[in-house]
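Q: What would this chain look like folded?
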Amino acid sequence: MVGLIARGFAYAEIGSELGITVKTLENHISHIFEKLGVASRYELAALARELGFSDTDGREYF
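A: My prediction, written as structure tokens:
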């Protein structure tokens, strides 16, 4: 999920890929934001790249 965000996918695209509604995805994302201390999808993507948890070749690590 985070890798898809880091690669710039829209929430609707991510929800469709994962088979969940956008609302469910938004709930999951808000919990991730809270736990990681980020305020936006851009901060989340930057953190994921900085920590090496998301790679631009499509691999995801969380």
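Helices lie at 2-6, 11-18, 22-36, 41-51.
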